[in-house]
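Re: weekly structure request thread

Next one in the queue (554 aa):
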Amino acid sequence: MVSQLAENGGSFHRRWQGPDLNGIAVLTLTRAGHVAAWSVTASRLFGYSADDVTGKHVCDVLLTGPGQRHLVTQALAEVEGGRMWTAILPVSTAHGSSQVTIHCEPIEGDGTGLLMIARRAAAQPGHEVLTDAATKIGTTLDLHRTAAEAADVAVPAFAEACAIFVSERLLVADELRPYATGPAVVVRRLTARLSGQPASITDGLLRPGEVVVFSSESPSYRAMTQRGPVLFDQLDAETAERLARRPGTQAMFDPYTSFLAVPLVARGVVLGCANFARSAAWARFSAADIGLAEELASRAAVSIDNARLYDRERRTASALQQGLLPSEPSVPAGLAVAHQYIPVGASIVGGDWHDIVPLRSGRATLIVGDAMGHGPEAAAVMVQLRTAAHTLADLELEPEDILLRLDRMATGMPAAPFATCIAAIIDPATSTCVIAKAGHLPPMLILANGETSVVDVPLGLPIGLGAGSYEAAKIRLPRGATLALYTDGLVESRTRPLDDGLSALSEALGSALTRASRTLDETCQEVTQALHSRGEDDITLVLAQVIGGPEKQA
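Done, posted below.
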C-alpha cells in the first residue's frame, strides 16, 4: 500500500505542479470515507499525527464545515464509479482553517479505497484566476469551446459551479441593439461546469446549446438588463422548476447557498451572462469576489464575441458559397451526363463553372468555363458569367452565339473579366453535337473500345477580349462514345506540361470508360481523383453519352 501510495502520489504531483511538493499532502480513505493511511506530508500540512486521525471519518477530521459531508458523499460516489473529483474547500486543521484544493481518484489496482491529494490554495486566488483567464480563454474561435474554457478557469478555482449563456438573438438574428426592458430574455446555454463532476455528466444535465428563457424575476435577467452583477442566496422559482424536470439535477444544486450573476459585456453590448455558485463549504461571494467575477466575465466576453463574429462570418461565407454551386441538372431522355468539380484549396467554389441546360427541343446545352484566378474574386466573376450563359443557353441559341453574347456582356462590365469557355449542344435524337470554344481546351471523344481523340474545334478568343465572332464544329457521337469537357486545372500545372496532362487524361478516360462495372458518375469521380493530386487550380470534368445512338464513327 505504501509503495502504491507513493507511486500514485508522485504521478499526481507531476501532473499538478512538477517536482515541488511543498504544501501538498497525500492520504488514503476507505470507500466509506475513513482515513486509512496518513502520510508525513499530511501531518505537516494539517497539524494532526497519524495516530490522531487514522480510522476516523474525514468529515470528523478535516471537512467538518456545514454541507461538506454532502460533498464528501459526492466525491466517494464519483471515485467509486472510477472517476476523479476536485474541489477547493475550507479545511479544519490543528492551527485553524485553511483553503485547500482537494483531489480524489481511485487507487490503481485497489478497489478498496481512494487516494486524496490536498494542496494549499494560493494566497492570492484572484490573481491566479485572472492569470489563467489570460492564457486559457480564447485559444480557439469555436464558440462553445471558448465558453468551456472560461468555465474551466472559474471552476473550481473561483466557484463550485458556473454556467455561461449568450443571447439567442445575437446568435440567430445578429441583433446588436442594447436590451430594452421587456418581460423576458431568451438565451442559449453554451456550457456549464460543476465542481467534482465530469463534463460529460454536466453536459447531460445542463445541455450545451439549450435555449432558456429568463423572466423578469430571474437574477440573470436583472444582470443582463441592468448591466451589473446580481448577488442572490437561492435559485429563483423558475430556474428551480426547470432543474427539477431532469432527475438528479436539483439535488446537485441543493448544497449551493451563494449565487452571483454577471453580465457578459463586449464592445459595449451585453452578450449574455455568466452565473456562479458556491456551497456553504465556501465563503459567500464578497465584494472582492464580485470585482474578480466582473474581470473574469469581461475577458471571457471578448473572446466569446470574437468566436461569435467568426462563426457569423463563417456561416455567411458558407451560405454564399453554397448558393454559388450549380443545382443538380435535369438531363433530357436519351442522354447520360456526369460532372465533377474540385475547388483548389479550402474554398467551396472558385473560378470554374459548368452547366447542363435541357432545351425544349429535346437537346441539351453543356457549358464549361474557367474565370481567371481562384478564390472569392474569381467566384464573383464566375457566378455572373454562369448566370448569363445559362440564360443564353435557355434561349436555344447556337454555341457560337452563346459565346459571342457572353463576350459582349463581359467586355461591358466595369472590370472586364477574362475567362475561357466551351459550349456544346447535344441532340440525342440524331446523335450529333455542335461545339464552339472561346480560348478553351478542346474536348475529347472516347469511343466504346477506349480509343481517345481530341476533337478539332475552331480556336476562339477568350471571353472578355471583344472577339468579333466564334465558329462551331459539328460531330457525330457513335453508340457508346463519351464526350469529355474539362478545365485546365485537370491537365496542367507548374510541374506538368500541358501535353503530358492531356496524355494522362486521355489514358485515364480510355481506361476507366472501358470497364463495364463503372457507371458514368463513378468514372467521372475516378478520373478527377486520379489527376487532381497534381492540380494547382480548380478542376472541372463533364462527361456526356448518347444512350442508344446510331452506330457510326465520328
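The first helix runs from residue 2 to 17. The chain has three domains: 2-120, 125-316, 328-546.
Next request, please.
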